[in-house]
Amino acid sequence: MAKSTTLLLTTVALSFFCVALAFEPSPLQDFCVADSSSSARVNGLVCKNSASVQASDFSFSGLHLPGNTKNPLGSSVTPVTVAQVPGLNTLGLSLARIDYAPMGVITPHFHPRASEILTVLEGSLEVGFVGSNPENRLITKTLQKGDVFVFPVGLLHFQRNVGNGYAVSISGLSSQNPGIITATNAVFGSKPDISSDVLAKAFQVDKSIVDQLQAKF
Asked: Exposure check for the chain: N or C terminus, fewer CB within 10 A?
């Protein structure tokens, strides 16, 4: 077995182990495969009839495939959440593969429902998160292949490829549906727009600059 494949499999196993104790309630049955066709509204997803459950409800193929990084950010995320694996419903964990072109970034964002543990599979990444007010302390580190970093739940964090080639990381998250709120999209791309008066005062800039930024998102 190739070294890269061995590392990937080991990382996946460790990621699942580390996020097994999640914030979400413990399941009260063997499994609760998500029934995406149900119109019922619950905190999570309704369980499919166990008689119709198949092995495919618990599997995902393709995590070994590179994502398309030909975009303005130079990055690509391949998620493995309850949307891709219905069998994750009620289990409180998920995964994501992230590919980075040279100088590619995952812009500042946070997960409202999950902590994240990231492992670098290839390349070098600058990573960091910002603590809450009033300190707003930046905790940052440059990671190499095989290094691990943790982003606490709800805190703004980012990743950037600082190597000369492509980089790959894999993350374990402590929710079947961690969610993602990207800072720039939330502030300048909300629907409807946040008032430019509010944003101009918040960022201490002219309203015309706010208008330009909102137009981009």
From this structure: N
0.70 exceeded by pTM: yes
CA–CA distance, 80 with 75 (Å, rounded to integer):
17
Token pair of 208 as six digits: 């015309």
Q: Is 64 annotated as a binding residue?
A: no
Read off the tokens for 8: 């990937």
Provide the strand spans (E) within 61-115.
Answer: 75-80, 94-100, 105-110
Residue type (1 letter), 122: E
| Cβ pair 112, 148 in contact under 8 A | no
On whether 122 is known to bind a ligand per the annotation, the reply is no
pLDDT tens, the chain, 217 aa long: 455 556 555 555 555 444 444 467 777 788 899 998 898 878 889 999 999 999 999 999 999 999 999 999 999 999 999 999 999 999 999 999 999 999 999 999 999 999 999 999 999 999 999 999 999 999 999 999 999 999 999 999 999 999 999 999 999 999 999 999 999 999 999 999 999 999 999 999 999 999 999 999 8
Q: 55 by DSSP, 3-state: which? A: helix
Measured torsion, CA atoms of residues 148, 152, 156, 159, in degrees rounded to the nearest 10: 10
